[in-house]
Amino acid sequence: MTAPVASAAAGWAETALASVLARVSVTAHEAGMRFPLYADPDTGAWRTTARGSWTGGFWAGLLWLRALSSGAAEHRAAAADCTGRLRHWVARDTATRGLVLWYGTSLAAGPGGDGAAAALRDEAARACLAAYEPEWGLVPWGGAFGGPRLLARADGVPGLVPLLARADGGAAAAYAHLDRHLRLCLSQDPPRPAWQAGPRGTWTAWPEPGPGWSRTAAWLLLAVADGMRCFGADDRLRAAADRLSALRLASGARLVPPARGDDPSGPVDTSAAAIEAVAALKLGALARTAGDLRAADHLTDRGRLVLHRLATAHLSSTGALRDGCYDADRGLAPRHELIWGDFFLAWGLATLTGLVEPFTM
Question: Are 359 and 229 in contact (CB under 8 A)?
């Protein structure tokens, strides 16, 4: 499935990927047994966490990409060790287990891959399915990070859809989880990323993150692509993909979105652009398989164009993807290197160069 993408990738993608993975080695030395979160754009110094927060899976994923690229035993061992340190998240009450435990395991857990990562992925799938609440039609956002437990948030969908689908009997829950979030988030324009459950099955808008958040469409596009791979392109998923694609993957859309839609001249968010690029490559691969070559070419070209912009305008000489925005509302890390931005840039580049497939399950 990667051949049409890889054959069109110029040398810039290989050069950029090598730079990002070299940065991974520097970060690994600096972070040690901790997990990098975001780095100062001037000094490159990382803010780290002891347990990984919701981003720990992206660091493990980066280490697996480095191991796949180099083939070095020590890189594989480092990636396996990092993935093992994510196990405590299996029991945490949070829908971000999809981000942590899918992206932290999926590059390693395929046929002939790392057995421990595969076992952790399956354990996580069962735990997430056990947390599914049929009354609400989703795995709740959860209480692990404080705030109301019964929230639906756009960043609680990616990763969790394929993770749930892997569990025995989990396909229906995976589809319902995706469908619930799409119905809520796409009920407003621009899509609203967060909703709180109320009495008698009602939902009300939750203020954080607010409408116009840069990663709303990005996370939903990624989840829809995985949903279409898991369940097929039914009318509901195709309609959601079309609406989100028109919003962010159309030819006239900004390649790198503003961190806040109501502040188009403010900070941008390269991490959102990197997520969207990976989603575009996934959707392009699905369209090619379905025989829709026009859509496939457009989506693949869009993903490649976004990655090229990131690699040429936002990637430092040391391999750091700058200009990511952690939280514009709080002014937290507004122009920084973000670990998930690095991961999705690396994954997109690895797809372009043929190192990995668009889908990893």
Answer: yes
Inter-axis angle of helices 293-309 and 339-352, nearest 10: 130
The dihedral sign for the CA sequence 177, 181, 183, 184: positive
C-alpha–C-alpha distance, residues 85 and 79, integer Å: 10
Distance CA 267, CA 281 (A): 25
Sign of CA dihedral 37, 277, 186, 156: negative
What's the rounded Cα separation, in Å, for the pair 287 and 292? 5
Q: What is the 3-state secondary structure (H, E, C) of 84-109?
A: HCCHHHHHCCCCCHHHHHHHCCCCCC
| Cis peptide bond N-terminal to 190, omega within 30 | yes
pTM assigned to the model: 0.96
pLDDT of 224-260, one tens digit each? 999 999 999 999 999 999 999 999 999 999 999 999 9
- 206 pLDDT exceeds 70? yes
Whether a cis peptide bond, with omega within 30° of 0, leads into 211 is no
**Number of helical (H) and strand (E) elements in the chain, helices listed first:** 13, 6
37 φ/ψ angles, rounded to the nearest 5 degrees? -120, -60
Neighbours of 4 (CB within 10 A): 14
The residues, ordered by sequence, that sit 6+ positions from 74 with a Cβ below 8 Å of its Cβ are: none
Contact 109, 96 (CB under 8 A): no
In angstroms, the CA 268 to CA 334 distance is 8
